[in-house]
């Protein structure tokens, strides 16, 4: 039988070389592995989205092909948040889902949860690699050394050792990009784990931020959202030539002035900025700028000065009201979003009512309401009395209803006006899938607009009568 196969092989080689080449090519293709595939899932803030997009591009240069998270992939990367306990739970649920559908795939966990609780994550069945803050952007090197079935590898470090800045931006959507210009936080609010997860405040250089923005503009991006952990704390330190030991600082105001000069970009938004860092200069600049949108998102957290003190916030509600009043005096049409936490330890009915009344009387457009969640190693754990969970949820619902009414009122105030809307490709239906018959966009002042789909309007700014 062997002689028969041998003769057949010689006949193919000598009389039909083209057939031999095809057989050999098929054989080699089976031996040579195709490019590995990778899928990403992001939990948390805009900053995480910008970093996930950058990680995706880094792995693409290493030959990885990107897949949707719902598809099969050789590697799954989950970029985590740890602001609330729900974010931790969602991470664990995602790992279990991967294990059910693709148990042979590698699972990588990075982000804030990975930095704060690497050992806890490593004990989740199916997790192969845990990357802390210092190793997140070295993911390609770690994947080269990783095999399924090995013991879970933890790559983390003391957060105090992290001093570098990794620039990031998202490019998944041509219409809008999240550009990271700052990371870390020097504030130590009593409820927050972010300084422990991301380290001290550090920033990109203005030159590099401008260059990244120019690159995004060249790729067709129309709107850039500036992101950071504590965006208003942006600082660029420059050595003065004649005094090497002396330093001169450039701040967030200098950054936005430089970005405003870039041609080819139609819109900038400031994602979130602390009220004590939102200066009169910044507000006046946005009011006059044609590129920076009349839209601010300003964390408040509580309308009670006593609770603000317990939270270790760096302002009182009177300062917050002054900022809102100045914005509205210069830009009556400006949208203002507010972060607020309900159920913080010590928040009684009196303090919650103070928060409700303060927000009800404040000329703001919408609220992002967070239910207080106990986080390990925070000072808030020492505070009493603890607010019952059901009370926290009730207060959350009350403020969400207030937010709905605020947004309805704000939208109605602009009915009949013509405002500039940047339309995206398709809107999402109730299941989160793309609705091919509809498209959506946002006005300069962040009013959401839904219209029947028109291909020629995608990624264009259109004058639209509300």
Question: What does this protein look like?
Answer:
- The longest helix is centred in the C-terminal third of the chain and has 25 residues.
- α1 crosses α2 and α11 runs parallel beside α13.
- The strands form seven sheets. This protein has a six-stranded parallel β-sheet with strand order 2-1-3-4-5-6, sandwiched between helices. Strands 7-8-11-14 form a four-stranded mixed β-sheet, with helices on both faces. Strands 22-21-18-23 form a four-stranded antiparallel β-sheet, with no helix packed on it.
- By secondary structure, the chain is an alpha/beta fold.
- The N terminus is likely disordered.
- The chain folds into four domains: 30 residues; 121 residues, Rossmann fold, CATH 3.40.50.12160; 181 residues, pyruvate-formate lyase- activating enzyme (Alpha-Beta Horseshoe), CATH 3.80.30.20; 48 residues.
- It has 15 helices and 23 strands.
- Helices cover 37% and strands 23% of the residues.
- It is globular and about 60 Å long.
- 38% of the residues are buried.
